[in-house]
Every structure is written in structure tokens, then in C-alpha cells.
Amino acid sequence: MTSAKTIILQNGRILDPAADRDCTGDIWLENGIIVPPQQNCPEGCTRFDLQGKWIVPGLIDMHVHLREPGEEYKETVESGTRAAAAGGFTAVACMPNTRPVNDCASVTRLILEAAAEKGFARVYPVGAISVGSKGTGLAEYGELKEAGAVAVTDDGLPVLDSQLMRRAMEYAGSHGLLVMSHSEEIALSRNGSMNEGVVSTRLGLRGIPVAAEAIMVYREIALAELTGQHTHIAHVSTAAAAELIRQAKARGVRLTAETTPHYFTLTEEAVADYNTNAKMNPPLRTEKDRHAIIKGLQDGTFDAIATDHAPHSILEKELEFDRAANGIIGLETSLSLSLSLVRDGLIDAARLVELMSLAPARILNVPGGNLAEGSVADVTVIDPDRKFVFTEESILSKGKNSPFLDWALQGKAVLTIMGGRITHNELS
Predict the structure, then answer these.
(1) Which of 74, 210, 217, 260 has the highest count of CB atoms within 10 angstroms of its CB?
(2) Residues 222-243, buried b or exposed e (16+ Cβ, 10 A)?
(3) Which residues are annotated as catalytic?
(4) pLDDT tens, residue by residue, 6-53
(5) Which class would CATH give 57-364?
(6) pTM of structure
């Protein structure tokens, strides 16, 4: 990382949906803050001429797995945030399914200490809903909040006990913590390894039906309506769940939701040759579901694009398909894949920035998401025309488990600035 007292970003397309701003101009950063442009450049300032490039608020990924503590051979705070910075992210929210589970202040503090010492992006720890993510008793939310957690979830596992989930919503709400739901009905999904349908039948693999997601999303909506608490639905993959969320929002339920690039880019056909790099939970679905996910991004059903970045080593992935671990990496491909929606005219550039920066900041209630003067200097510069091939050798994450290996992609973060410090630079 490099730092400069003053950084001047010149002649770029400024995209700041928080201020309904889309224009060509300059952004000045001084001592980690966005400041008004001045007449003269101070001595020792750093300038970038960004003609043809976009200047946007730093991207925020509200759903990643950094694996530290406990599985540092898969990823660390340092390697994960380095990959995040390369993907244009200035902040990430990390899930609690570490070893030990982040269900207490000591683990939260450990993650934040690692981020302060070695991080290339801001790290917002997410605590567990239940002790050990075992679903039997609530974690101590007051302690987690005080230590620095911004939300709670048992991500990777659903909370099966509806009464416990109700209490979690009520308890978390009283501490100003967001509840994030991993929506999965285990009785339907257990031992499944891909979407249930024609492809799973052809491959001889046990499938996970759409209903496994939809049933639990319906429950979370009912509990959010009952408690009046803001609830967030993670990694939505199906048309059925999207429609439930759309209807709930229309009647005023305090609900937000995210999806991921793999659900609007790929379908179950990606696993047709037993490619374990396309195995995840929830699984890739059908073309109908893919189109429904895109519609949800267009009409506001989905508030955010997250990655669900889930690095694994070859120990977990180079196995028989039904035994391989779920999850793919996504920090270094998310922006490029999402930009394809803009190029295809499905969403506009401002909506993309809203989905990947403004909305995550608002949902998590963290700084960022805008380019207002006086705001923290978290800024991403995007070259929408930069073409590259995503190769295993280019990946900064420790995990190489991506279904997008060797894809030709377009659009890339070429400069990432966190708090006035340059964390990733492909311009010089």
C-alpha cells in the first residue's frame, strides 16, 4: 500500500448515485478525506488522468469468507483483502464460520486486529446468530456489537428453530445489528449437491429443490413481519425466492436481499462435466432462475450484489462432485461480471454503483457509498473497457476455485483507494 497526502483524480466520469451525480470532473482526496477541488495542486500531490474511466465510491462486498482464524491455508485477512482491493473493494463484511466460530468478542477483535495490521480493505466482522452456529442458543450480541461486529448470521447453516430466529431478530434489533439469513430448508436439501432437475438426473447426482430456498425465505419474511425488524436475505438463487421478496417489500416488510454474479451469469449446466469449481450452496439454478435474478436487480427486489467469496484448497475441491466442498471465489471477478449487465443494457452504471457500494453501506450502516465532500476517501476507479483473461496465475486470493477460470472478461478496477491509501494500482 502507498499513501499520499493529496491525491487528485482528474477528468474521470464521476458516478455517485447518493447525490444523483453522473458527470465528468475531478475528485480530490486529502488526508484520507474527500475535499473540494482547489485552484493549485499542493507540493508532493499525486495526480491521475482518468479520461475514459469511472470514479465511483469504494465498492463494498457485504458477504465474504476470509477463513481467518482457523483455516489460513484457504485464505487470510491479508490475502483476502488484497484480492478484494484488486477487485475494486475498499471494504468487506466477513462471515463468522471460522474456526473457532466468531460468536464472541475475542474472535471479532482478533479479526479486526489482523485487518488493522495487514488489511488492504476495511473489514467488518459479522458475528454468529447462535453459539458455535449450532442453532441452540443465541450468541451474546451486545458483546459482539461492542467489539465491532456489524451484523449476525449463521451463514453456511440455516437457523432451523423458528423461535430462536424470532428471538435473534428481536435481540439483534435492540443492539443495532442486522440479521442476515442463510435460507435453506435442510430436510429438503440434505445430501444434495446441485440443483434438482433434468441435469441432476442426467448426472446421477442428488438435487436440491427450489423449495429448499423458497420455504425458508418465506419463514424469514413471516418473522420479519412479526417482529418488525430489518432482515437481510443472503445469496438468493431462485425465481421463487425473488418473487416472495418482491411481494414482501411491496407490503412494507423491512427486508433487504442480495444475490451474486454467479447466479445471474451461470446455470446448472456449468456443472455438466462434474466441475467442482461450479459447486456451491445454494446451487446454480436454471435459465429461468437466472433471468429472474436479473429482473430482481432491475426492479429493486435485490438491494445488493455480493460475492459470497468462499476460497477452498484442492484438498476440498479435487474430490468426487458430491463430496467436494461448496463455494467459489468471487472478489476478483465480481465487478467484471456485473459490468456485463451494464454493457448489455440490463441496468445502468449508476444502478451498478448503487448495488455494489451505496446499498451495502446503507444496509450494514457503515461509512462509504458516496463521494460527498467530507466523506472518507474510499474510492474505486474502473476502466470499463479493460479486457483481460482471468487465469489461475493472476489470482491474488489463496483460493483458485472459480468457474470463471480462463474466461475473457471486460471491465476492471484499475485503482483502489482506502482512506486515502492506494491499495491497488494498475495505472502506474
Answers:
(1) 260
(2) ebbbebebbbbbbbbbbbbbbb
(3) 308
(4) 999 999 999 999 999 999 999 999 999 999 998 787 777 899 999 999
(5) alpha beta
(6) 0.97
